[in-house]
């Protein structure tokens, strides 16, 4: 069995100059942003997600087949493929929202079928997820929604990064807004802020820039790149080849492509 081994670890001394440049461009506090990224790095220990001969059936047919790969700590990947090919399903398998029909998945060296409900909940605290369909509690303001993972984890006092984080995703002026008043792009940016507020080891994003203009897409990509340089593992499902090219110019990003129910490493011509 051929296994894709993606072992792209971050540098020991990451360059944070792009963060300062973007901070100056958008009139944000560079010292606060730099400190925020370093604190996000310090929370938790890094780990991996591994698939071993995994298959997943849906609607009586096989959606994913014979998937074997390992997402190494500090790696950056994009996941591509036609609509309906299984990108969202693959991401859900990565955080145990779905269980494989066949094969074995391990999250941080623990096999998912052996995890209790509490174990799954604790494991998901180490994985930040940006869903394509962003869900919020409509009666609570944006700040409360973004910090909800900290509240659930009993860490409600750890909110010092909130102002910088909301500023970075362009939502500082909407901190008190209720979710129904937000546009689709604003909801996606809020979802990214919520996904990284816990300082997770892994960030999974399903089309996170689908409703954003190019400038805001670059802004969010910069945050993900900086977190990756700090050792976080990033996996983004996307159709945007320009976004992939931009990331590959900054980090050693690899591209996975779903083809005929299997996941393959894409070529270097993207």
Report on this structure.
The chain is α/β, with parallel strands linked by helices. Helices cover 34% and strands 23% of the residues. Strand 5 and strand 6 (110-111) form a beta hairpin. Helix 1 packs across helix 2 (30-42). The longest helix has 16 residues, at 214-229. The radius of gyration is 18 Å and the shape is globular. The chain starts with a strand and ends in a 5-residue tail after the last strand.
Strand count, sense and barrel status of the largest sheet are: 6 strands, mixed
* CATH superfamily placement: P-loop containing nucleotide triphosphate hydrolases
How many helices? The count is 10
Please write the CATH class name. Alpha Beta
Proportion of β residues?
Answer: 15-25%
Helix content: 25-40%
CATH topology call: Rossmann fold
As a whole number of angstroms, the C-alpha radius of gyration is: 18 Å
Order of helices and strands: EHHEEEHEEHEHHHHEHEHEE
Strand order of the largest sheet: 7-8-9-4-10-11
Overall outline: globular
- Give the rounded overall mean pLDDT: 83
Class from secondary-structure proportions: alpha/beta
In the CATH hierarchy, the architecture is: 3-Layer(aba) Sandwich
Q: In a few lines, what is going on in this structure?
A:
The protein has 270 residues and is α/β, with parallel strands linked by helices.
């Amino acid at each position: 069995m051929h296994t894709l081994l993606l072992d792209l670890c971050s540098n020991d001394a990451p360059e944070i100059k792009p963060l300062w440049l973007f901070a100056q461009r958008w009139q944000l506090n560079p010292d606060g942003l730099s400190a925020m990224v370093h604190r996000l790095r310090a929370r938790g220990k890094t780990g991996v997600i591994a698939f071993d001969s995994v298959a997943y059936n849906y609607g009586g047919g096989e959606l994913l087949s014979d998937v074997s790969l390992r997402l190494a700590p500090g790696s950056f990947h994009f996941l591509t493929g036609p609509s309906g090919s299984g990108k969202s399903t693959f991401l859900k398998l990565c955080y145990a929202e779905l269980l494989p029909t066949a094969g074995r998945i391990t999250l941080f060296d623990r096999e998912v079928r052996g995890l209790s409900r509490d174990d799954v909940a604790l494991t998901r605290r180490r994985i930040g997820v940006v869903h394509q369909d962003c869900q919020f509690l409509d009666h609570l303001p944006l700040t409360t929604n973004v910090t909800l993972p900290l509240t659930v984890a009993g860490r409600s006092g750890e909110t010092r990064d909130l102002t910088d984080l909301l500023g970075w995703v362009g939502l500082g002026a909407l901190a008190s807004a209720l979710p129904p008043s937000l546009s689709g792009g604003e909801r996606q940016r809020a979802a990214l802020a919520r996904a990284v507020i816990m300082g997770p080891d892994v960030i999974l994003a399903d089309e996170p820039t689908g409703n954003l203009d190019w400038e805001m897409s670059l802004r969010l990509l910069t945050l993900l790149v900086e977190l990756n340089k700090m050792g976080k593992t990033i996996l983004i499902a996307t159709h945007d080849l320009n976004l992939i090219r931009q990331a590959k110019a900054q980090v050693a990003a690899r591209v996975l492509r779903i083809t005929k129910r299997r996941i393959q490493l894409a070529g270097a011509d993207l």
